[in-house]
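Researcher: Predict the fold of U-box-domain-containing protein.
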Amino acid sequence: MPGNEYAAGQLKEKGNAHFRKGEFESAEACYSQAILKNSQNPLLYTNRANARLKLARWQDVIDDCLKSIELMQENMKAYFYLAQAQLSINHPNEALSSALRAYDLCVHSAQQTSNAATISALVLKAKRAKWEIRERERIRRRGDLLGELETKLEEDYKQQKYNIDERESKGEIGQVEAEEERNDIKQTWEKKVGDLRTAFAISDPANMQKREVPDYLIDGITFEIMHDPVVTKTGQSYERATIIEHLKRSPTDPLTREPLTVAELRPNIQLREACHEFIEANSGWIYEW
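Model: Structure tokens for U-box-domain-containing protein follow.
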């Protein structure tokens, strides 16, 4: 009904005003009221998801994003917010899938957008989180004692997190204080795990060393390690084959969205040498990335 759509629009604008002021709970409330007026508008769900991201209400964010995608499948923002929430609850496989979908929609959008670089960074973050889990399991398999100790640290961390959640649900602490405590115990847990791995790596460097790929070696389109990088006029490097394929579809830089042609690409010789040296030095595992 037109009246309801107008009311929903007014409530959305009111929510936007609260959001800009950092009043995320008030913004969420306004978006919720707008949804009651017009439950078929997918953009209202992404607005509320964004507010809920700020409030660290991860499952609510996921629910809103899935509903928004149900109403509008080519929904870049919904996939972007969904990936962030999935990553926050330690589901990197799902987060990577969602982030890649957001990135694909972004770079193939007919509308000018400045989100590509931000989404690209999220894709890489999700991929690294997925890799971190694989690395953790590999290292655990290499050393039973290390695995047992890491498991104990993780159990302690989860118990502390559960205790904070319980205190928050009972009203003993506020949402902001609870989130600060969760961040503190997470940082402490990650430091303990890091220190533990360092100690084992010193004692058994051949098997316990953490394997990582530097960001500058990774193509910004496929998120794989480059072999033949080329550089654009703005200094952004891509794998030659992937950027040429992209330019066949759209004559723009996929990250900056500035006009770009194949003739403007130049070999990035120093980066190519760095890629080749890294691949050669790590040939035993590099293709698992």
